[in-house]
Specification:
By secondary structure, this protein is an alpha/beta fold. It is about 40% helix and about 15% strand. Strand 8, helix 7 and strand 9 form a beta-alpha-beta unit. The longest helix is centred in the first third of the chain and has 19 residues, at about 15-35. The structure holds 1,4-dihydronicotinamide adenine dinucleotide, 2-OXO-4-methylpentanoic acid and magnesium ion. The site of 2-OXO-4-methylpentanoic acid has 5 residues, from helix 4. Its EC number is 1.1.1.85.
């Protein structure tokens, strides 16, 4: 790495600050071990930013992100802000605009079963086998989460609310190309998820994905309806390599994939744009039910930091070292409550971060 890189650290709400502290701890251990330097600059985002600045994505936060080489993001939202009008809630007023602003259209969510956690999966042992390895590639800046018009109108029994699902050929093509390019580096299989039997948007999705696939004859493509895919993931996860999804279906299936590996707290993600600028965040949310208790699993945040080193900074060896340290820590039986077989032996968030960091130092 030629110069010190600047990381915008947006921890957010709920468990966000707790798990972020552990990711930064691990990154600092990696800096010392591998001799690179990162500069961490912190800013408010989400509900805590509404409380302090009156806006979920204050201009100074956006300016910091623009001046940074990557964004490390925690989570936003929670019951405290649910009373706000929908367009002012932290998720819609901060996270979605951030994704749109930086055109972070490509969301990578890898779900792999750690060998020591085969038993933590809620799937039957004969289905999990030695573990599966699925990469969910989710389109992140379009689809029904962004389509216009959306709104509410009318009153009484006639009051209605509506969202618009929309995809352009260009939007589908660029995420499909990413999926095929990445599948080439893996097991060369793309399963495109849609609902083309009902939704016109998804008819175009299927058509464009099929057209793009002709440029990748070495990669096998099959199409699957979202309802079937949800069932097939549980019946036989080994049939999947790369899942190519639109925004909403990828949101839903990736939570399912996370839990199939043992916990929501294990699923890391990278959201990148065409210039390889990225935002790195756990796939889960602010987990208000466990926030402030020091028991959240920091692994998804730590592995998101490893993805940042790999995708934004080209620090492959350091990324691998973090991933290996996480795997070894889990194998040594250092487990947070969500993945521990015996909750009485579970460690807290900070102990898990300490254990991973000390393995990197070693
Ligand atoms: N990227 C983001 O900032 C996201 C924000 N949210 C927001 O977060 C809030 C809570 O949403 P929920 O639907 O409850 O989803 P959630 O992902 O926050 O929590 C779902 C379940 O997973 C557990 N969980 C999540 N992360 C965990 C971790 N690291 N360790 C252990 N357990 C973990 C929680 O305890 C909870 O039981 C809402 O305001 C929601 O809109 C939800 C998803 C993503
Ligand atoms: C605001 C939501 C779309 C966040 C979320 O659930 C996700 O990105 O997985
Ligand atoms: Mg989600």
């Amino acid at each position: 790495m030629d110069r010190e890189k600047k990381v915008a650290v947006l921890a957010g709400d709920g468990i966000g600050p707790e798990i972020m502290a552990e990711a930064v701890k691990v990154l600092k251990a990696a800096e010392a071990a591998f001799g690179f330097r990162l500069k961490y600059e912190y800013a408010d985002v989400g509900g805590c930013a509404i409380d302090c600045h009156g806006h979920a994505l204050p201009p100074e936060t956006l300016a910091l992100c623009e001046a940074s080489d990557a964004i490390l993001f925690g989570a936003v939202g929670g019951p405290k802000w649910e009373c706000l009008p929908p367009d002012q809630q932290p998720e819609r007023a901060a996270l979605l605009p951030l994704r749109k602003h930086f055109d972070l259209f490509c969301n990578l969510r890898p779900s792999r079963v750690f060998p020591a956690l085969v038993e933590a999966s809620p799937l039957r042992p004969d289905i999990v086998g030695d573990g599966f390895d699925i990469l969910c590639i989710r389109e992140l800046t379009s689809g029904i989460y962004f389509g216009r018009p959306k709104g509410r109108e009318g009153q009484g029994a006639d009051e209605r609310a509506f969202d618009t699902m929309s995809y352009t050929r260009r939007e589908i093509e660029r995420i499909a190309r990413k999926a095929f390019e990445i599948a080439r580096l893996r097991r060369k299989k793309v399963t495109s998820i849609d609902k083309a039997n009902v939704l016109t948007t998804m008819v175009l999705w299927r058509q464009v994905v099929t057209e793009v696939s002709r440029d990748y004859p070495d990669v096998q493509l099959n199409h699957m309806y979202i309802d079937n895919a949800s069932m097939q993931l549980i019946r036989d996860p080994h049939q999947f390599d790369v899942l190519l999804c639109g925004n909403m279906f990828g949101d839903i299936l990736s939570d399912q994939c996370a839990m199939m590996t043992g916990s929501m707290g294990l699923l890391a993600s990278a959201s990148i744009n065409e210039s390889n600028f990225g935002l790195y965040e756990p796939a889960g949310g602010s987990a208000p039910d466990i926030a402030g208790k020091g028991i959240a699993n920091p692994i998804a945040q730590i592995l998101s930091a490893a993805m940042m080193l790999r995708h934004s900074f080209g620090l492959e060896a350091a990324a691998l070292a973090i991933e290996r340290a996480v795997e070894e820590t889990i194998a040594a039986g250092v487990l947070t409550r969500d993945i521990a077989r015996d909750p009485r032996k579970a460690v807290g968030t900070a102990q898990m971060g300490d254990a991973v960091a000390s393995r990197i130092r070693a």
